[in-house]
Amino acid sequence: MGNGRARMSRRLPIIHEITESDAGPYRLERMDLEFSNGERRRYERLHGRGHGAVVVVPLVDDDTVLLVREYAAGVHRYELGLVKGRIDAGETPAEAADRELKEEAGYGARRIDVLRSLTLAPTYMSHSTHLVIARDLYPERLPGDEPEELEVVPWRLDRLHELILREDFSEGRSIAALFIARDWLEHHVVG
């Protein structure tokens, strides 16, 4: 277990049947599964229609990230978070991140690092979001699909402890992405 890569040697459950139905922007699958101990269960999972998403950590310098404030319909309030959005057909995560950054924050990036992918709720959802760090920013705006221009809020990474306690900063991908990015920046050459 010392290397952090220990895995259990269980077989994946056998899928006996999958039935699908439409669930708006998702496809709902009902799976009839049999586990290695003989237990049978029905699981449900959601598949997004599309090519995944990106969450972008845009750095104006080594110590300052750009956040955006936008309306969040799920909680019916304005929420502070990172730039994020869907990957369009034919786009790489890096291209999607640069486009979303231009649409939502009015900046492009000359340096883009795709660090890893994050899941939202892997026990019932297949959706994956690529975590991207964008550096060497320059002003450039593209028209986006937001109904109003988003407020851009610079935030110092050494004040992350204050940000994570704010009521209007609650989105899990943004929180995780900032901690991962901060750690990555501390352990990699930023030059």
TrEMBL record:
Domain of life (superkingdom): Bacteria
SUPFAM superfamilies documented for this protein: Nudix
Cofactors, names only: Mg(2+)
Any single Pfam family the record assigns to this protein: NUDIX
Domain Nudix hydrolase: 46-181
Keyword terms, alphabetized: Hydrolase
Gene Ontology MF term list: hydrolase activity
Protein name: ADP compounds hydrolase NudE
Organism expressing this protein natively: Luteimonas terricola
